[in-house]
Amino acid sequence: MLGVSKKTSDDFMKKRKLSKRIIKHQHGTPNPIIQREEEVLLLLVDKALASTSNSQAIGRNGEIPLRDFLNRYLPYTLRAVTGHFVPPSGRLSPQIDVMILDARYPLLAENADGSVLAMLHSVIQTIEVKTRITTRDIEKMWKDSIEIMELAAEVDGYGNPGDFRSVRTTAFAFRSAQRLDTLEQKYEEVGKPDKSGLDITVLRLSDKNIKKGIGVELHFEPNFPSQKSKKVIGFIPIPGASFTPLSDLYYRMVQNSYYTTEERGHSYGDIGHYVMNYMSWATASWDKVFKE
After folding, report:
1. Does an H or E element contain 79, and which?
2. Average pLDDT of 120-141?
3. CA triplet 198, 201, 202: central angle to 5 degrees?
4. Is the predicted pLDDT of residue 213 greater than 70, yes or no?
5. What's the pTM?
6. Where are the beta strands (DSSP E) in 90-243?
7. Backbone phi, psi, residue 194, to 5°
8. What is the three-class DSSP state of 286?
């Protein structure tokens, strides 16, 4: 620097470096960026609850902001959509609030409301969305997730919760309608982790003895006989508290989506081949196109 000694210049540069703001998210602390996103989502749901009594409208005002958040943050290799998927047999899946798709795959249909029809081969994760979760919801979530996995089993590895190629079934609730211990008990009571690896994220818990802003993930962790073994011998229920549940959901989604994509190992050539499982040529014979 002109007219300044080297020592003064070095001290200035050192202070300048030290004054730089550190924004890396530290383990075991709230994620301040995603925390703001959580607040926006909750406000949108609360506005819907205050402005309508229509359960479908309230539900859409939970699903749409969550999908929008995911599509703003997810890499272009993934996309969040709503609708149905079909396995190669052509059987239609239940309506799914959010599907995370491998974006390399083409869609089979897209409707005016944005809902889609996707190939099972492209489905990485499904999410059922609730504004306020109850034990009755948890029972239905397990039933729905098992139905999804049964359909997914048409493709090798897709319906096995112990396989990284598998479709991941999850649920997301903005708030809890009952205490955590009540929800946890029902999750363990009706859960069938050998048939579906259903994880449930609750953004905000209603328990009065739990700090404001805390959420939870309900999860069954596979148990192995040893660290080197890949054979699952059982499942252990593990509820995990979180300062920023949406951050953990997003983190896990991105990480697992890449692991799943790698394990499936689908090349562009493979995708071109898999399309033939879902579409056929509409070519017509000339003797069938003329009127009688």
Report:
1. strand 78-86
2. 97
3. 140
4. yes
5. 0.88
6. 96-102, 109-110, 116-119, 123-133, 168-176, 199-204, 215-223, 234-242
7. -75, -15
8. helix
